[in-house]
UniProtKB/TrEMBL annotation:
This is Hydroxypyruvate isomerase. InterPro entries: HyI-like, Sugar_Epim/Isomerase, Xyl_isomerase-like_sf, Xyl_isomerase-like_TIM-brl. Keywords: Isomerase, Pyruvate. It comes from the Bacteria. GO terms for molecular function: hydroxypyruvate isomerase activity. It comes from Profundibacter amoris. Belongs to the hyi family. Gene3D superfamilies: Divalent-metal-dependent TIM barrel enzymes. The active site is at 137 (proton donor/acceptor), 234 (proton donor/acceptor). Residues 22-249 form the Xylose isomerase-like TIM barrel domain. GO terms for biological process: glyoxylate metabolic process.
């Protein structure tokens, strides 16, 4: 059975962010992740992790404001300075929160120059933080139209070009289903690159066991393939978060 993680950006939103740590622990999670922690002081979240004996699986590079605006800068031509500034800020948060992974968001862009920019920024980040696991995540075009990294084969090609041991794939099963319509086959093709998994039901992005994804089958598949990382619930609960946690028992 995988080690499950609660995404505190989407789960337990019944509570202010800082109270979600305790709510996740009470619901049985030992691991949490936060997409964009930058609205809260890092020290406050570190204290919450310690208080509730929780581990941080992942944080993202900015955008700092998830409510709107940019979706990252790593693939934005001429955005290198902004990317580097934000990445250093992420590393300052990481010093306190000690996330297993940092997800580097590409942003909205397309074309050869964006690809080259993304690769160069990823190489730079890999050298800045050689001991930190960094991830990239293909995101489906319905959720983020125009997002540069929108396909798993594209991600594989970019990871090969970056060729850094600490830059790997964040495999979001929800995006995989939305992009390819065939989660098991996408895992078979790309799962060996995955260091972190996220999951939601599709369509709808609600609980993983609501919709077309066979999450019990997926958990069996990743277990059989020897996946040892976390599986994070990253979805919009239909009702109260605690009422929709059957999927962690599958
Ligand atoms: O899947 C997602 O949406 C997230 O993992 C993310 O990092 C930003 O959108
Ligand atoms: Mg995701």
């Amino acid at each position: 059975m995988p080690t499950f993680c609660a995404n505190l950006t989407m789960l337990f939103t019944e509570y202010p962010l800082i109270e979600r740590f305790g709510a996740a622990k009470d619901a049985g999670f030992d691991v949490v992740e936060i997409l964009f922690p930058y609205d809260n002081p890092a020290q406050e979240m570190r204290s919450a992790l310690i208080k509730h004996d929780l581990k941080m699986a992942l944080i993202n590079t900015p955008p700092p404001n998830w409510a709107g605006g940019d979706r990252g800068y790593a693939a934005i031509p001429n955005g290198e300075k902004r990317f580097q500034y934000d990445f250093k800020r992420t590393l300052r948060y990481a010093q306190l929160l000690k996330p297993t992974h940092i997800h580097i968001m590409a942003g909205r862009a397309k074309g050869a120059v964006a690809r080259a920019t993304f690769i160069e920024n990823l190489k730079w980040a890999a050298m800045q933080a050689p001991k930190q696991s960094l991830t990239i995540e293909p995101i489906n075009p319905t959720d983020i139209p125009g997002y540069f990294l929108h396909d798993f084969d594209q991600a594989a090609e970019i990871l090969d070009a970056v060729d850094a041991p600490n830059v790997n794939l964040q495999f979001d099963a929800y995006h995989a289903h939305m992009i390819t319509g065939d989660l098991p086959a996408t895992w078979s093709r790309h799962g060996h690159r995955a260091v972190h998994i996220q999951i939601a039901g599709a369509p709808g992005r609600h609980e993983p066991d609501i919709g077309d994804i066979d999450c019990a089958g997926f958990f069996k598949q990743i277990d059989a393939d020897g996946y040892k990382g976390f599986v994070s619930g990253e979805y919009h609960p239909k009702g109260r978060t605690v009422d929709g946690l059957e999927w962690v028992k599958l």
